[in-house]
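Why this split exists: single-chain examples teach little about how molecules sit against one another. For that reason, every record in the complexes split bundles all components of an assembly together and asks for one structure covering all of them. Below is a record exactly as it appears in the raw files.
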Amino acid sequence: MTFLKKLMEISGIHPERVRTRWVSSAEAVEFVHEVSEFAEDIKKLGPNPLKVKAREAA
Amino acid sequence: MSQKIKEYVQKLLTEGKIKGFLGLREENGHIMPHLFCDPKELDVLSLGDWKKSGDTRYPLNQLMIRLTMEYPEETFAVLVRGCDERGVKELFKWKQLAEDKVVLIGIGCPDKLAKACECEKPFPDSLIDGPQGTKAENEKVASIDKMDLQERFKFWEAEFNRCIKCLGCRNVCPMCFCNECSLEEDQLVGTGEVPPANPTFHLARAIHMVGRCIDCGLCEEACPADIPLRTLYKKVAEIISKEFGYKTGFSVDEKSPFNIIEVK
């Protein structure tokens, strides 16, 4: 993960677009929290530059 | 051509310590790889300096792997520069070459070449002839570090878009020894389109260069589209050295963080 994030950083993709968390199946609250937080953060970052390019091409 | 190296190899061959010496020869204005088995042949030995120092290089380590597969009992010597020696050390660890069957004949690179390569260590430990050059600064990587995320994205997008997927970077790579290659995996990199999935193709290769790329720069030399691959893999090596404290090809005992094969 450390490496992947750094690699994304070099290639100009925001490293926060990828995230790993360990949540047990018994921790529903924790899971919801993580996913909502990730969704919020991703919205703030805006559309993925790779996807934007694909849409423009289409 | 170096008298020192010629005499050194001559001695090894006549004493029967090695079966052959894998080096380069110059003939009719061309430099090509050659396996010297007879000490008398050594007059055509070349160090790959054609018009300028080190401008003709071949992935000799790649040939070395094939040679030792054919003749696993024999000992061979191979011509190495600083980068090639780092490669040999990694290949020992990846069990592609046997340490006791390989004799290294090292040549050092002049400062000018080291600077052009931005080489970290432009001379091998097994130095027999040539200068013991100094570490060169990493200016190309620094220029990418200066960019912000958007600029970097644009930069690499433009570079990778020139790719014609000739796979030359992989084919020339002395560290690409896998029988099956992820880059040919349809699920990962779709076939039938040029440029190949951008940036998946190049980043997949970059990930596979972890603990393998020894910064010889043959990929960039081979690339018909002039994609600055060396800069990309230099950056990969920098991450590995900063985050995991591993320097590719600098020791024979230390295992790469992404290698699951036991070292020794």
